[in-house]
From TrEMBL:
Domain Molybdopterin dinucleotide-binding stretches: 658-754
Domain Molybdopterin oxidoreductase intervals: 124-577
Highest taxon in the source lineage: Bacteria
Database matches in NCBIfam families: Fdhalpha-like
Organism placement in taxonomy: Bacteria, Bacillati, Bacillota, Bacilli, Bacillales
One Pfam family in the UniProt entry: Molybdopterin
Name of the protein described by the UniProt record: Formate dehydrogenase
Keyword hit for rRNA processing: no
UniProt key word Iron-sulfur: yes
InterPro entries referenced in this protein's UniProt entry, alphabetically: Asp_de-COase-like_dom_sf, MoPterin_dinucl-bd_dom, Mopterin_OxRdtase, Mopterin_OxRdtse_a_bac, Prok_molybdopt-oxidoreductase
């Protein structure tokens, strides 16, 4: 942990810089871009029935959108107000009224005709609901009826057949902590959270490379660093306020580099609404884009290091920071030998980049005195995601870009709640402030909590779903599944399998603020729906942890309350007392303040959370920079340089690598059928013009994308995507992704695979023959 403290927000330059302008045409008129003013007016209209409350949420609460960490309208990076359409779109979840009773209790078939967007727009869940097997509609229940049903099932069920899951939907550290404690009190280690499908490899890789599981630096370090690299991250779309930080960085002379298979328009230029100059004329963001193959990042990085070692042979010290490496790392010679045996032909084929392009990037970093590496799901959602991140760490360590100003490793979070989930112990591998595999951590937590922890390893959420389909006699056959938010039908690979798994569970509990398509699925015994409060409604307020490890206090905000909704942590505590009334005293967790006091004891890095109780209260755990001055919290104080093997990319000749991307959405919540940055429809398939031409495809042509796992009907959209690769929207393209393929260290599902692209008329013309089946068999043979 570092000793230097964050110094607070800085001011933007007062004078404009026309060199950064995209166009002199005001507001980007005539260009494909977000219409921020129109969008803001639309959102104000949606919230017209609750505008005073909406205003208080925006000005007093901590943003429940991405994890940049905006408290009210202000953050710790830049002076001045910040507001983005992502936060505004999420706002309606907090201000809308309850679902009308006639709709809520409609026939389940009628409700099931609605998609998740339509269900979300119905309003909030006002009171507990139960739907037993064979019933065609939800019945209203009291809290006692609902929780007693769940508690009775839990008492009758082997703890190994019970699982908890928490999404990142505005959930606070307090709720994660209580859920983690309750799960262990009830005897199960089957508890997981949304980071399993986004950044779990980041934590795993950073732990093994530098000994920490979070961002080592701050957003302020972007501003003035020599090079800012976005790796598989479209921050302009997913964390829009970050464009303001990019603007500030550009004004300081920072070079911004994007590494991605698709040349994302939003990372090239952006009209930042909270900066007058940018709102009028736009801002050129990135200086260069390196278009790698899907999964080609490890080869690219091996190529960069190969260039560095070649430079070192000619001129020692020209590429590697030897003083840093010798003092603060181990494994240099093994890494050097590993990279030396890589041949350029293989690296070029795997990465999709030429040796010359790899050299350009290598020389750029070699000349830089500082750099910050930022990444997201483009690196993590692979079966080799942990290796991807350790490879990024290798680059930073060889150049000494760690533990000092304007340097660092940053897994940028897409949701304000998710950073704290594992740190609070809501994870099958984690405990508050530690790891479940550590005897010392287990002993420490058992002493604090006053009860023993289950000794068996819990399952990740993907395996939990698979366990629902185990034979009846199996010890881990999933019978009770308790989820706080989340919709696996729209977030996990192979939706058909997910549907089968969810309907095979005895009792399914959905603790949520809204309905979604998974809530409506049948269960073998009962579906129980429990109405939760938002973070702004919870008595005693709550805290969340940002990407840069800022722990923010979000106060309870005066306003309307929805029916019988309860604080998430309070529901967990009530359930535990019903399942094990004899353990009520051990549980504690009677108030938000008491929970924060306990967190400070359970997770040492969170010491200080107990003092957060007023609007605007915040502290940063670990100081400004983790691994400050290169000293890592590892047994020997050193970081590990790790030889990383090239992954097998498994793309047979004549097939395309496919990955998923986000459009106008927040996680799986879609807010528009059209992407404002490239005008793509949700079912548009982004394909290189040359690849489209080779298949005689034109814009708008109906196509089928398919493989042995599933198919997707879409339309051609020629775009600047790397040749040999295509991109489809998530979750629309999840039917193409195989189930049961997980990253070996962190357990994240694989979200990339190989597919065939074919004209729809050809696909359907031959559908009654062996043509399609034969092509799928060919793919399976070639892949395996």
């Amino acid at each position: 942990m570092g000793k230097t403290k964050h110094t607070g927000p800085i001011k933007l330059p007062a004078k404009p810089d026309p060199k950064l302008w995209v166009s002199k045409v005001p507001f980007g008129m005539g260009k494909i871009k977000p219409k921020h003013i129109r969008e803001t007016a639309k959102i104000a209209w949606q919230n017209r029935d609750n505008l005073p409350y909406a205003y208080r949420i925006l000005t007093q609460g901590v943003c429940d959108g991405c994890a940049l960490g905006v408290s009210g309208l202000y953050d710790q990076t830049l002076a001045g107000p910040h507001l983005c359409t992502t936060r505004l779109n999420v706002l309606r979840l907090n201000t809308m009224p309850a679902i009308r009773e006639d709709i809520l209790h409609a026939d389940i078939e009628e409700l099931s005709r609605l998609g998740s967007t339509e269900l979300r727009q119905l309003g909030r869940i006002p009171y507990p609901l139960i739907r037993r097997q064979g019933e065609r509609r939800f019945s209203r229940a009291t809290w006692d009826e609902a929780l007693d049903l769940v508690a009775a099932k839990m008492r009758a069920t082997n703890p190994k057949q019970t699982a908890f899951y928490l999404t990142a939907r505005g959930i606070t550290n307090e709720s994660y902590y209580v859920a983690a404690k309750v799960a262990r009190l009830l005897g199960t280690n089957n508890i997981d959270n949304a980071s399993r499908i986004c950044h779990s490899p980041s934590k795993t890789a950073l732990k093994r490379s530098v000994g920490v599981g979070a961002s080592t630096c701050n957003y302020k370090d972007w501003i003035g660093t020599d090079v800012l690299v976005f790796w598989g991250s479209v921050a302009a779309n997913n964390q829009p306020v970050s464009t303001k930080y990019m603007y500030a960085a550009k004004r300081k002379g920072t070079k911004i580099i994007v590494i991605n298979p698709y040349y994302e328009p939003s990372m090239e230029k952006y009209w930042i609404p909270s900066i007058a100059e940018s709102a009028l004329f736009g801002t050129k963001l990135c200086d260069d884009v390196y278009q790698v193959n899907i999964g080609g990042d490890i080869a690219f990085m091996n190529g960069v290091m190969k260039v560095w070692f070649e430079m070192e042979e000619r001129e020692p010290g020209s590429a590697i920071d030897h003083a840093f490496v010798q003092a603060h790392t181990h494994g240099l010679e093994q890494l050097r030998a590993h990279v030396a045996q890589q041949d350029w032909t293989t690296l070029e084929q795997s990465s999709g980049l030429t040796r010359e392009r790899m050299r350009e990037f290598a020389e750029l970093l070699a000349r830089a005195a500082s750099a910050v590496f930022v990444w997201s799901m483009g690196l993590t959602q692979h079966r080799f995601g942990t290796d991807n991140i350790s490879q990024v760490a290798n680059l930073a360590l060889l150049r000494g870009f760690l533990g000092r100003e304007h340097c660092g490793l940053m897994p940028i979070r897409g949701h304000s709640g998710v950073q704290g989930s594992g740190e609070m112990g809501a994870d099958p591998f984690s405990l508050p402030g530690g790891e479940i595999s550590s005897a010392a951590d287990r002993s420490r937590i058992e002493q604090l909590w006053g009860f023993g922890l289950p000794r068996w390893q819990g399952d990740i959420v993907g395996v939990t779903l698979e366990n629902a389909l185990l034979p009846e006699e199996q010890e881990r056959k999933l019978r009770m599944f308790y989820t706080s938010g989340g919709n696996f039908l729209e977030t996990m690979p192979d939706p058909a399998f997910v549907r089968e798994a969810l309907t095979s569970i005895d009792v399914r509990v959905h603790q949520d603020i809204i309905l979604n398509t998974s809530t409506l699925l049948d269960a073998r015994e009962a579906v129980v729906v429990l109405p939760a409060m938002t973070r702004y409604e919870q008595p005693g307020g709550g805290t969340s942890t940002s990407t840069e490890r800022m722990v923010y206090f979000s106060p309870e905000i005066a306003g309307p309350r929805i029916g019988e909704a309860r604080a998430e942590w309070a529901i967990y505590a009530d359930l535990a007392r019903r399942v094990k009334p004899e353990a009520a005293e051990q549980l504690g967790c009677g108030s938000a303040e008491a929970i924060r006091a306990e967190i400070a004891l359970a997770a040492p890095s969170y010491n200080g959370i107990q003092h957060l109780h007023e609007r605007g209260d915040v502290f940063q755990y670990g100081g400004a920079w983790l691994c400050e001055d290169g000293v890592c919290p590892t047994p020997d104080g050193r970081a590990a340089l790790l030889p990383i093997e090239l992954p097998e990319l498994r793309k047979p000749e004549g097939h395309f690598a496919v990955t998923t991307r986000r459009g106008k959405q927040f996680n799986s919540m879609i807010y528009s059928d059209t992407d404002p940055f490239n005008d793509a429809d949700r079912y548009d398939v982004l394909i290189h013009p040359g690849d489209a031409g080779a298949l005689s495809l034109h814009d708008g042509d109906a196509i089928v994308v398919y493989n042995s796992y599933g198919s997707m009907h879409g339309r051609v959209k020629r775009a600047d995507v790397k040749s040999g690769n295509i991109e489809v929207h998530w979750p629309e393209g999840n039917s193409l992704i195989p189930k049961g393929v997980y990253e070996q260290y962190a357990g994240i599902p694989e979200y990339n695979t190989a597919v065939i692209v074919e004209k729809a008329e050809t696909y359907h013309a031959y559908k009654d023959t062996r043509y399609i089946e034969k092509r799928i068999e060919e793919l399976e043979t070639e892949v395996e």
